Amino acid sequence: MSGEGKVVCVTGASGFIASWLVKLLLDRGYTVHATVRSLTDPNKVAHLLALDRAKERLHLFEADLLDENSFDPAIKGCDGVFHTASPVSFKPSATKEELVNPAVNGTLNVLGSCVRTPSVKRVVVTSSTASVMYKRNPLTPADVIDETWFSDKDFAEETKQWYILSKVLAEEASWKYAGENKIDIVSLHPGLCIGPLLQPTLNFSSEVILGTIKEGMDFMSFPINIYVDVRDVAIAHIEAFEVPSARGRYCLVAETMHSSQVLKIVGQLYPALAIPEKYGADLPIVPTYKVSQDKAKSLGIKYTSIEVSLKDTIESLKEKSFLKF
Questions:
Q1: CA dihedral (97, 100, 102, 105) positive or negative
Q2: Does the domain made of 7-191+227-253+289-302 have the CATH classification 3.30.1390.20?
Q3: For the chain, which residues make up each domain, given as ranges?
Q4: Each residue of 186-201: pLDDT tens digit?
Q5: DSSP letter, residue 34
């Protein structure tokens, strides 16, 4: 097994992507130091402790993004760090302070702990396509987004898109700090993650899928979405750590698709779901921009089809009673 004898840290381990990452790391033989906000909250720890091999090789630590030294104990003795912890919210009530400060300062606090830990060889940072593709000018079908793209932080500030701004500023801060302190970092930029949930609570991307199914496209603020399976994203994290030649940024997007087509696929897979009729008819295929997969494929990433990802998402939402039909 590739991780035998290696110790790694996963921050924000109770989250959607991070839970899958912890599971796959344990499957590969790694010993995992996982940080959560509260060791006494069953929603944060029960699903992690239930993973195969958790008893032997999973160690939980409490840590706070805004506490400068709180990641030191978890990172001590680690060969690598996966920094996934960051607040996510697109709610109008979410404030700049709630999103930007923990994202930026939390990243710097984690990287600071890595600098103080000489055993750490590489840090893999979970970013988002939010820091890649948010532009003032609307994207067109002629656009092919790749790792050279950067979101417009002034436009994000003007439009009060605080989550997007948090991702842009956290990424900027991490590259600057890593350069100054000679840390080897790789950043991953997934689209909207779908797939089965390990955690008992509803995360943001699963909420988007649930809302789209229940309320149709009217729910969506961005009708064109970029999808990727959470399991592929977790594998990409491990590859980004293990492959010596991994460098820089990696966009992780399996499919770019208009919500109407997602609803059509769901309607075909689950006729009992009663997708609103206006989305069941033969809607025209809306041309969308593309996201390059070339760099991700150089890591050996093979994407799960959107049909499989959507089916597994819906089965999981049904099993956890978030969706009834």
A1: negative
A2: no
A3: 7-191+227-253+289-302
A4: 999 999 999 999 999 9
A5: E
Cβ burial of 50 (10 Å; 0-12, 13-18, 19+) is exposed
With beta carbons less than 8 A apart as the criterion, state whether 96 and 165 touch.
yes
Please give, one letter per residue, the 3-state secondary structure of 132-194.
Answer: CCCCCCCCCCCCEECCCCCCCHHHHHHCCCHHHHHHHHHHHHHHHHHHHHCCCEEEEEECEEE
Q: Determine the Cα–Cα distance for residues 128 and 132; give it in Å rounded to an integer.
A: 7
The answer to whether the CB of 121 falls within 8 A of the CB of 184 is: yes
Q: Classify 252 as helix, strand or coil.
A: strand
- Joined together, the tokens standing for residue 50 give 């239930």
Write out the two tokens for 135. Answer: 């532009």
CA 177 centroid distance within chain: 22
For residues 29 and 53, is the Cβ–Cβ distance under 8 A?
no
| Torsion angle (degrees, nearest 10) of CA 1, 33, 111, 249 | 40
Q: From CA 162, how far away is CA 39, in angstroms rounded?
A: 28
> In what order do the strands lie in the sheet containing 185-190?
58-62, 31-36, 7-11, 80-83, 122-126, 185-190, 248-252
Show the tokens assigned to 229.
Answer: 């399976």
Please tell me which of 2-6, 41-45, 91-95, 245-249 the model is most confident about, judged by mean pLDDT.
Answer: 245-249
Query: Residues 192, 197, 201, 205: what is their CA dihedral angle, to the nearest 10 degrees?
Result: 10
What is the tens place of the pLDDT at every residue in 92-142? 777 888 889 889 999 999 999 999 999 999 999 999 999 999 999 988 889
Residue found under tokens 């089809």: 305
